[in-house]
Amino acid sequence: MQGRRCRYCGRQWPIDRFARKYECKECSRARHREISRRPEVRERNRKRFHNPEGRARHLANMLRYSRRPEVREQRRQYSQRPEVKERIKQHRQKPEIKQRRQEYYRTPKVRKMRQAYYQNNKERFRERSQKYYHSPHGSAVIRQRNQSRRITKGGIAFAFTPVQWIYALNYFNGCCAVCECQLDGMFGDTKTHQDHWIPHSKNGGYISTNIVPLCQPCNLSKHATMPEIWLEYQYGKRKAAILLQRVEDYFEHVRLINDEE
Question: How far is CA 149 from CA 1, 35, 37, 205, in A?
């Protein structure tokens, strides 16, 4: 293997281990660390990066550097290392990191950005979901989810009749209880779903005081999320409070009818 001798450390290295013609990468990093720790260099960098123009110039340079194909490939290979994946996983499991991520994704700017990205890439998301659920891992996840649902279903209330379902549809005028779009069978073409308002995984029963009619997009978006969190994420605090009160009024109305019977 062809190599070269570093003029600083005196060791023989392969060609790809050199940052400059006669300086290996290890010596180059050590020299830059030593220079960056000098007081005059620190003061110069502080003045440069603590003003708007210097900060904008620095960010532009970093962005230009990160978009290089070789840099992207290097970062991708680094992120695929098992020890790096494990370190990232442990970091994301910390409570303060989870809380910070939730607050970030609930901000209006990020929510609108993610919604716009999804609308522009629906086919891509659909293909990726189908590919995942047909993979061995995705199939195992579905089987485990269905098994858990069947096991927990035995200890949860299960007494919702077709008559109560028709009453729920009539109460909401054949519309989705959240977005108020017309459902199929009621002059609309949107699929109707029976939604567990308190999710089944959170011990929500299949009873008249927990089932509401939702359209397919709303039900799939809600999934197994608690209604307060989901509504606030979708509509904001003010409208979420109105929608929650609407559904709670329906449940209270159903409770009064059940007490009379």
Answer: 60, 61, 58, 12
Residues 125 and 200 in one domain: no
Residue pair 205/158 in contact by the 8 Å Cβ criterion: yes
Residues 230 and 217: their CA atoms lie apart, in Å, by: 13
The answer to whether 106 and 233 have CB atoms below 8 angstroms apart is yes
CB burial of 141-165 (b: ≥16 within 10 Å; e: otherwise) equals eeeeeeeeeeeeeeeeeeebeeebe
Q: 187 and 167, same structural domain?
A: yes
DSSP state of 24: E
For the stretch 97-135, pLDDT in tens is: 999 998 998 898 999 999 999 999 999 999 988 888 888
Residue whose tokens read 């003003």: 51
What is the number of other CB atoms lying within 10 angstroms of the CB of residue 168? 18
**Residue (of 228, 194, 229, 230) closest to 212 by Cα position:** 194
Segment 211-219 shows an average pLDDT of 90
CATH of the domain at 167: 1.10.30
In 157-231 the beta strands, taken as DSSP E runs, fall at 192-196, 211-215
Beta bridge partners of 194: 213
Predicted TM-score (pTM) above 0.70: no
Domain that holds residue 147: 108-153
- Exposed, middle or buried by CB within 10 Å (0-12, 13-18, 19+), for 204? buried
